[in-house]
Amino acid sequence: MSRRQKEKTTMSNDCENCGKCCIETEMILSEYDIDLIIRKSQDHVIKQDFCFKNKDEHHQLKNIKGHCVFFDYPSKFCTIYEYRPQGCRFYPLIFDINELKCKLDEDCPRNNLFYQNKQVLKVKCDHLKRFLKEQLKITII
Ligand code: SF4
Ligand code: SF4
Protein backbone atom coordinates (compact mmCIF):
# COMPACT_ATOMS: atom_id res chain seq x y z
CA MET A 1 0.00 0.00 0.00
CA SER A 2 1.47 3.36 -0.90
CA ARG A 3 1.41 6.13 1.65
CA ARG A 4 0.94 9.83 1.09
CA GLN A 5 3.04 12.29 2.96
CA LYS A 6 0.14 14.66 3.37
CA GLU A 7 -1.85 12.04 5.27
CA LYS A 8 0.81 11.86 7.93
CA THR A 9 -0.02 13.51 11.19
CA THR A 10 1.76 13.19 14.48
CA MET A 11 0.16 11.29 17.30
CA SER A 12 -0.73 13.30 20.41
CA ASN A 13 2.26 14.63 22.31
CA ASP A 14 1.87 11.98 24.98
CA CYS A 15 2.62 9.42 22.28
CA GLU A 16 5.52 11.19 20.62
CA ASN A 17 8.32 8.82 19.59
CA CYS A 18 6.53 5.82 21.08
CA GLY A 19 4.07 3.88 18.92
CA LYS A 20 4.37 0.76 21.05
CA CYS A 21 0.65 0.04 20.71
CA CYS A 22 1.05 -0.03 16.92
CA ILE A 23 3.56 -2.89 17.09
CA GLU A 24 1.93 -6.31 16.59
CA THR A 25 -1.44 -4.65 16.99
CA GLU A 26 -4.51 -6.76 17.73
CA MET A 27 -6.91 -3.84 17.40
CA ILE A 28 -10.49 -4.80 16.58
CA LEU A 29 -12.39 -2.75 14.02
CA SER A 30 -16.08 -1.97 13.78
CA GLU A 31 -17.87 -1.73 10.43
CA TYR A 32 -17.92 2.03 11.01
CA ASP A 33 -14.12 2.07 11.42
CA ILE A 34 -13.67 0.09 8.21
CA ASP A 35 -16.03 2.29 6.20
CA LEU A 36 -14.37 5.45 7.52
CA ILE A 37 -10.88 4.28 6.57
CA ILE A 38 -12.01 3.30 3.07
CA ARG A 39 -13.86 6.58 2.62
CA LYS A 40 -11.10 8.84 3.94
CA SER A 41 -8.00 7.13 2.59
CA GLN A 42 -6.50 8.73 -0.44
CA ASP A 43 -4.72 5.48 -1.28
CA HIS A 44 -7.98 3.84 -2.44
CA VAL A 45 -7.59 1.03 0.05
CA ILE A 46 -9.95 -1.90 0.11
CA LYS A 47 -10.93 -3.85 3.22
CA GLN A 48 -8.54 -6.71 2.50
CA ASP A 49 -5.59 -4.31 2.46
CA PHE A 50 -5.82 -3.54 6.14
CA CYS A 51 -7.97 -6.03 8.01
CA PHE A 52 -8.88 -9.68 8.37
CA LYS A 53 -11.35 -11.74 10.39
CA ASN A 54 -9.77 -13.20 13.51
CA LYS A 55 -10.73 -16.49 15.20
CA ASP A 56 -13.56 -14.72 17.06
CA GLU A 57 -14.95 -13.47 13.73
CA HIS A 58 -14.02 -9.88 14.55
CA HIS A 59 -12.32 -7.66 12.02
CA GLN A 60 -8.79 -6.97 13.16
CA LEU A 61 -6.09 -4.61 11.87
CA LYS A 62 -3.40 -6.32 9.81
CA ASN A 63 0.27 -6.14 10.67
CA ILE A 64 3.03 -5.91 8.09
CA LYS A 65 6.64 -6.45 9.12
CA GLY A 66 5.54 -6.63 12.75
CA HIS A 67 3.51 -3.46 12.97
CA CYS A 68 0.11 -2.08 12.00
CA VAL A 69 -0.25 -1.55 8.25
CA PHE A 70 -0.92 2.12 8.93
CA PHE A 71 2.11 2.67 11.14
CA ASP A 72 5.09 4.37 9.57
CA TYR A 73 7.79 2.69 11.60
CA PRO A 74 10.81 4.95 11.02
CA SER A 75 8.96 8.15 11.89
CA LYS A 76 6.55 6.51 14.36
CA PHE A 77 3.57 8.13 12.67
CA CYS A 78 0.06 6.80 12.40
CA THR A 79 -0.66 7.53 8.74
CA ILE A 80 -4.43 7.58 9.35
CA TYR A 81 -4.35 9.46 12.65
CA GLU A 82 -7.34 11.69 11.84
CA TYR A 83 -9.56 8.72 11.04
CA ARG A 84 -7.91 6.00 13.10
CA PRO A 85 -10.14 3.26 14.58
CA GLN A 86 -12.15 3.97 17.69
CA GLY A 87 -10.19 1.42 19.71
CA CYS A 88 -7.00 3.33 18.94
CA ARG A 89 -8.70 6.49 20.15
CA PHE A 90 -9.71 4.96 23.48
CA TYR A 91 -6.30 3.38 24.03
CA PRO A 92 -4.62 3.02 26.52
CA LEU A 93 -8.10 2.73 28.01
CA ILE A 94 -9.21 -0.88 27.60
CA PHE A 95 -11.96 -3.06 29.04
CA ASP A 96 -10.68 -6.03 31.00
CA ILE A 97 -13.08 -8.84 30.18
CA ASN A 98 -11.98 -10.92 33.19
CA GLU A 99 -12.22 -8.16 35.77
CA LEU A 100 -15.22 -6.62 33.98
CA LYS A 101 -13.89 -3.11 34.30
CA CYS A 102 -12.12 -0.41 32.34
CA LYS A 103 -8.44 0.01 33.02
CA LEU A 104 -5.36 1.70 31.60
CA ASP A 105 -3.33 -0.91 29.76
CA GLU A 106 -0.10 -1.75 31.54
CA ASP A 107 1.55 -2.33 28.15
CA CYS A 108 1.44 1.41 27.50
CA PRO A 109 4.62 2.86 29.00
CA ARG A 110 3.00 6.27 29.52
CA ASN A 111 -0.44 5.20 30.67
CA ASN A 112 -0.25 7.51 33.70
CA LEU A 113 -0.40 10.50 31.34
CA PHE A 114 -3.84 9.63 30.02
CA TYR A 115 -7.31 10.12 31.52
CA GLN A 116 -6.05 11.86 34.65
CA ASN A 117 -9.44 13.47 35.21
CA LYS A 118 -11.65 10.90 36.97
CA GLN A 119 -14.87 12.30 35.52
CA VAL A 120 -13.49 12.14 31.97
CA LEU A 121 -12.28 8.61 32.67
CA LYS A 122 -15.77 7.53 33.76
CA VAL A 123 -17.41 9.08 30.70
CA LYS A 124 -14.86 7.47 28.36
CA CYS A 125 -15.33 4.13 30.06
CA ASP A 126 -19.09 4.38 29.42
CA HIS A 127 -18.37 5.20 25.78
CA LEU A 128 -15.97 2.27 25.50
CA LYS A 129 -18.52 -0.16 26.94
CA ARG A 130 -21.20 1.13 24.60
CA PHE A 131 -18.80 0.81 21.66
CA LEU A 132 -18.01 -2.79 22.57
CA LYS A 133 -21.66 -3.75 23.02
CA GLU A 134 -23.29 -1.84 20.19
CA GLN A 135 -20.65 -1.79 17.46
CA LEU A 136 -18.58 -4.88 18.14
CA LYS A 137 -21.46 -6.94 19.61
CA ILE A 138 -19.23 -8.08 22.46
CA THR A 139 -21.11 -9.18 25.56
CA ILE A 140 -19.35 -7.61 28.51
CA ILE A 141 -21.89 -7.97 31.33
S1 SF4 B 1 1.79 2.74 23.83
FE1 SF4 B 1 0.84 4.45 24.95
S2 SF4 B 1 2.29 6.19 24.83
FE2 SF4 B 1 2.88 4.64 23.29
S3 SF4 B 1 1.87 5.35 21.39
FE3 SF4 B 1 0.50 3.86 22.38
S4 SF4 B 1 -0.90 5.09 23.67
FE4 SF4 B 1 0.86 6.39 23.12
S1 SF4 C 1 -4.40 2.65 13.16
FE1 SF4 C 1 -2.81 4.08 13.75
S2 SF4 C 1 -2.96 4.25 15.99
FE2 SF4 C 1 -4.09 2.40 15.38
S3 SF4 C 1 -2.63 0.70 15.55
FE3 SF4 C 1 -2.55 1.45 13.44
S4 SF4 C 1 -0.90 2.97 13.36
FE4 SF4 C 1 -1.46 2.63 15.51
Would you mind describing this structure in some detail?
The chain is an alpha+beta fold and 141 residues long. It has one domain (5-135). The chain has helices at 31-40, 47-50, 86-90, 118-135, and strands spanning 28-29, 51-53, 59-61, 63-64, 67-68, 71-72, 77-78, 93-96, 101-104. Residues 1-10 have low confidence and may be disordered. Bound molecules: iron/sulfur cluster (2 copies). One iron/sulfur cluster is lined by residues 11, 14-15, 18-21, 91-92, 108, 110.
Distinct small molecules bound, one entry per kind? iron/sulfur cluster
Overall number of structural domains:
1
Q: What Rg is obtained from the alpha carbons, in whole angstroms?
A: 15 Å
The helix/strand class is alpha+beta
Largest sheet: 3 strands, antiparallel
| Strands, total number | 9
| End-to-end gap | 39 Å
Instruction: Give the low-pLDDT segments.
Output: 1-10
The general outline is globular
Summed up:
By secondary structure, this protein is α+β, with helices and mostly antiparallel strands.
Please describe the structure with a list of short key phrases separated by commas or semicolons:
single chain, 141 residues, alpha+beta, three-stranded antiparallel β-sheet, two-stranded antiparallel sheet, globular, disordered N terminus, binds iron/sulfur cluster
Break the fold down into its secondary structure elements and pairings.
Elements: E1 28-29, H1 31-40, H2 47-50, E2 51-53, E3 59-61, E4 63-64, E5 67-68, E6 71-72, E7 77-78, H3 86-90, E8 93-96, E9 101-104, H4 118-135
Antiparallel strand pairs: 1-3, 2-3, 4-5, 6-7, 8-9
Bound molecules: iron/sulfur cluster (SF4) (2 copies).
